[in-house]
């Protein structure tokens, strides 16, 4: 493989703990206590799914969304840590004259705050965030944008993510896919490769 299109949250960076804490904090502002694992399971589907499910279950006003994003956007960068060897892996890819990209639904400001904090921004050829305005995964639109812009050969391009929608987006764009199974789930999402940690990834692809 020569080209690596990474998801960000839950794939390169373990942002789930801080996001879940922001959700719990917001719920507590409404006098609600909720199970952390339940929120995690919701969030693994999509953050929008988690928010909408909690609003429906607890009959929360729509302003809950704004309050959550306020709490989430105020998370300091050091609270969102990269997975072990994630940055090392991407640096090795770059050193070996291969290409890193990011496609994420995260907002541009917090995304670059985190990457800049860990001095990781320049490892990536291009970083696609919600600010680009593409259809959300599993739509292949953002993937096809990178493929066409950089003339990436699909057979040399790997899409990597930790959720089914990441894998579907890669498949829908015609590239190979890799499920980053950090939680050792008994799932594959029919990805071409299943990798449990970055040490494994480095041995296989770097």
UniProtKB/TrEMBL annotation:
Gene3D superfamilies: HAD superfamily/HAD-like (3.40.50.1000), Putative phosphatase, domain 2 (1.10.150.240)
A Pfam family: HAD_2
Domain of life of the organism encoding this protein: Bacteria
Database matches in InterPro entries: HAD-like_hydrolase_sf, HAD-like_sf, HAD-SF_hydro_IA, HAD_2, HAD_sf, PGP-like_dom2
Single GO biological process annotation from the record: DNA repair
GO MF, one example: phosphoglycolate phosphatase activity
SUPFAM superfamilies: HAD-like
GO CC annotation: cytosol
NCBIfam families documented for this protein: HAD-SF-IA-v1
Annotated PANTHER family: PHOSPHOGLYCOLATE PHOSPHATASE (PTHR43434:SF25)
Protein name listed in UniProt: Phosphoglycolate phosphatase
Taxonomic source organism: Tepiditoga spiralis
